[in-house]
Amino acid sequence: MSNDRTMNRRGFVRLCASALALIGASPSVLAQPDASARRYNRTRLVDDTGLPITAASLAVGENYLFHYPFLATPCFLLNLGKPTTSTDLQTEDGQRYAWQGGIGPQRSIVAFSAICAHKMSHPAREVSFINYRHERVQFRDAREKKSEREQVIYCCSEKSVYDPAHGARVLGGPAKQPLAAILLEEDKSTGHLYAVGTYGGEMFDRFFKEFGFRLALEHQTSRVRDLVANDTRVVKLTDYCRNQVLC
Questions:
Q1: What DSSP line would sit under the chain, residue for residue?
Q2: Class of domain 33-244
Q3: This model's pTM is above 0.90
Q4: pLDDT of residue 142
Q5: Contact 130, 121 (CB under 8 A)
Q6: How many other CB atoms sit within 10 Å of the CB of residue 61?
Q7: How many other CB atoms are found less than 10 A from the CB of residue 3?
Q8: For residue 47, which of 239, 243, 242 has the smallest C-alpha distance?
């Protein structure tokens, strides 16, 4: 019995040593960047004519809009024009996750749900109170002090401000969590861009409960909760919305 216990202890030590060696060689074994990702359909991003979107086709600083993962859930697609890196974030209910950063040659292409994390203001055909501001703007930060910076997503409805270069973390206003991030992939052989999932704090159930009827009218279908399938169209926000409220 004593020999068996000794062998078991030795086996356990060897197993731990092997695991530590594996983790040391590849830290991602412990911390997968998309560990909290929710996978939806792998959907290709295309333009008005049906041609695939590539990183090179996205103008720096332009507001682009597409719908994902559902037919009526709007998202921002942005080329920030600068590299991004992974950022540790947290949802309102305390769940931690790591935003992976952007994709493309400079890792400057990012995408986020365009549903504000406070009261779910979002781009609609008639008007949008939430938009990306590439130019320098003024706002009040989390400590209610006047702040000024460029490259923010600004919701003028309740003055929530997000930083798309760092996972849409909250810079100011009443929002309690970052915008949900859209997980993007780039096909290296073709350069085509795909949306494949989300991570962070989704608000889709609340969104459909509160706006479902209006969404059905706007999209002219009762199937607003259907998942986007093979392709999703990318348009400029200025072409999608008749009016944009800027602040």
A1: -HHHHHHHHHHHHHHHHHHHHHHHH-GGGT--TTTT-EEEEEEEEE-TTSPBPBGGGSPTT--EEEE-SBTT-EEEEEE-SS----EEEE-TTS-EEEE---BTTTT-EEEEE-S-TTT-----SSEESEEEE-S-EEEE-TTS-EEEESSEEEETTTTEEEEGGGTTEEEESS--SPPPEEEEEE-TTT-BEEEEEEES---HHHHHHHHHHHHHHHHT-S-TTSBP-SEEE-EEHHHH-SEE---
A2: mainly beta
A3: no
A4: 85
A5: yes
A6: 15
A7: 7
A8: 239
CB 116 within 8 A of CB 231: no
For residue range 156-210, list pLDDT tens digits in order.
999 999 999 999 999 999 999 999 999 999 999 999 999 999 999 999 999 999 9
Q: What are the sequence ranges of the domains in the chain?
A: 1-30, 33-244
Amino acid code (one letter) for 166: H
